[in-house]
Amino acid sequence: MKIYKFLSLLFIAFNLFTLSSCRNSDDDDSQETSTGNLQIKFENGFNNLGNIVLNQTVQTSAAGQKHNFSALKYVVSNITLIDEGGNEFKYNENNPDKGAFIIDQADAVAGVVYIDLNGIPKNNYKKVKFGLGISQKAYLLGQNGQAEFWNKAKQKGMSWSWAGGYIFVKLEGKYGISSADTEFMNHTGNMGNITANDVPDLYREITLNLPTTARVTAQVRPSIHILADLNQFLSGSKTLSLTIGNNMMMGSGPHLLDVTNNLTAMFKVDHVHND
């Protein structure tokens, strides 16, 4: 009888231990698959010195031209986070309504424009990748497939007609030799269906290494601080000069293709906060 009671108690204890272990395992699995939030900060400057003040901050280009900006806007989309193993998490890929953002210097707070991303899988991320502009795949979804972002772009002056498509980068201001006194307007972007219209694709993807791992958890929201060096506009891999032949241009012509290629190199991650 005593042996029977002992075996019964042992059996109950074993079941409780097994149930507890299963619950702990389930809890661990739940924590492993939990999500968190991440913030990306964009700070526009010249020569990696941030906080361009519209209509005030003046830069001298490699060709000796002085220039400033009265409008400085660009579209960021297809944000991808890359973990320590090289695995990618794509944030609303080719879905502009949820995954495209307009970086407008006029909206900057203390020189910084903020993007908040949610539903990011818990992980340690070592790189960030994003598109400058809107990919053809997203554009060809049609106007109904991106109605919300299309309306935002129209309100921000970052679109032409639907047949023309989106403005990827809008730079406006003044330039000159002794002083910045001549108006310029450079708007880059794909002109609709690039295959049908036989025009170059100005959409670019940029991949940046993070100096510190961004550790996303349910409790930790990392902040990635990106500096955009607008000196690359005229003083990038190809030295450019504004002239009466290119100072008022829209679309994807040769000058704007050069501008796009220069601006692709303007981004770098300054630091990461894990708060």
UniProtKB/TrEMBL annotation:
Pfam families: MbnP. Residues 35-239 form the Copper-binding protein MbnP-like domain. The keyword Cell membrane does not apply. This is Copper-binding protein MbnP-like domain-containing protein. InterPro entries: MbnP-like_dom. Keywords: Signal. Residues 1-25 form the signal peptide. It comes from the Bacteria.
